[in-house]
Amino acid sequence: MTFRHEDLPALFHHTDRAAVSRQRESAQATRVQLLLLVLAAAAAALPSEPHLGPVRLFGALSVLAYAGVLAVGVRATRRRARPQWQLNRSAAEFIKSLAWRYAVHGAPFGSGPEDAEQTYRTRLEAGLAELAKMGWEDPRAAGLVPRDGEITGAMRKLRGLGYQVRRETYVRDRLIEQRNWYRRRTEVSRRATSLWSWSIVLLTGLGLLFALFGAFGTGPAARLTGLVSAAATAGIAWNEVRRHHPLIEAHTLVEQNLAAMMVVMQTTITEQQWPSAVYETERYVSPQHTDWLARHSS
Question: Nearest Cα to 221, choosing from 37, 41, 45?
């Protein structure tokens, strides 16, 4: 059997789309603010000519850029894009993990309990209630997602199959898929880290060169040093916001854990040990675990 992404509950798909949308909104707001700050510094570094009456044209452009930074910041604060992105991502991954555990008899949905569906709904509502306390907006309350689709037909079908089929399906469609995802994200982060690191080095080197010229009273004006410094600062800030370096280490560790778990699941795990093994695997791929690794990476 193949358990596809589309076989997960509708609530997962809605929260997943909301997380992606809010993540883009948050990243776009930060990107625009940094670009406007660099634009303001560039406008301030330009000559005083031309004028529009008593107003310097480039000076007015600098004022507008700084005002734009404030406007974008106020809008982002009101929209709460970043908190909602993180809450929706936590909700989506929680639902996905719970659905997989239910479908393949992962703990606490082992083969023993006959009220697995009720346990699933109880766990689901308890977890989402905790997220709602932190500000997560439940789409079911607004009628955007029906409340009767928490368990899909594919989840019930997979749960009703034998241990060998469930194990093969979980290893192939969940564990290996997640391992490949972490590998792809690590490569993306490595390329981004290299690009931004060299860009920051280049801008810092230009700033150093301009500062040396300024120290001896030759070369570009001192304000060009400020422009390059603003651009380098924006690059450092963007690199920190995206957290490329700590995510490389976190994703690499998770990938290694999943690789080890895959070997264990395919060789030594018994049917009695299976529920706890699935639970441990789902713990590895949780956003909270990745975030903890990223915060504590060297």
Answer: 45
Q: What pLDDT is attached to residue 225?
A: 82
Q: Over the stretch 5-48, which tens digit does the pLDDT of each residue have?
A: 999 999 999 999 999 999 999 999 999 999 999 998 888 877 66
- Indicate whether 195 and 140 sit together in one domain: no
Q: How far apart are CA 152 and CA 272, in angstroms?
A: 25
Question: Can you give the residue range of the structural domain that contains 270?
Answer: 162-298
Total number of domains in the chain: 2
Same domain, 289 and 198: yes
* CA distance linking residue 135 with residue 85, whole number of Å: 11
End residue of a domain, out of 145, 161, 177: 161
Residue 103 near residue 155, CB atoms below 8 Å:
yes
DSSP the chain: ----GGGS-HHHHHHHHHHHHHHHHHHHHHHHHHHHHHHHHHHHHS-S--EETTEEHHHHHHHHHHHHHHHHHHHHHHHTHHHHHHHHHHHHHHHHHHHHHHHTT-TTS-SS-S-HHHHHHHHHHHHHHHHHHTT---TTTTTSS-TT-SS-HHHHHHHTS-HHHHHHHHIIIIIIHHHHHHHHHHHHHHHHHHHHHHHHHHHHHHHHHHHHHHHTT-SS-HHHHHHHHHHHHHHHHHHHHHTHHHHHHHHHHHHHHHHHHHHHHHHT--TTTHHHHHHHHHHHTSHHHHHHHHHT--
pLDDT of 298 higher than 60: no
**Count of CB atoms within 10 A of residue 4's CB?**
8
- 136 shares a domain with 8: yes
Q: What phi and psi values does residue 106 have, to the nearest 5 degrees?
A: -75, 155
- Stated pTM of the model: 0.87
Q: What are phi and psi of 201, to 5 degrees?
A: -60, -45
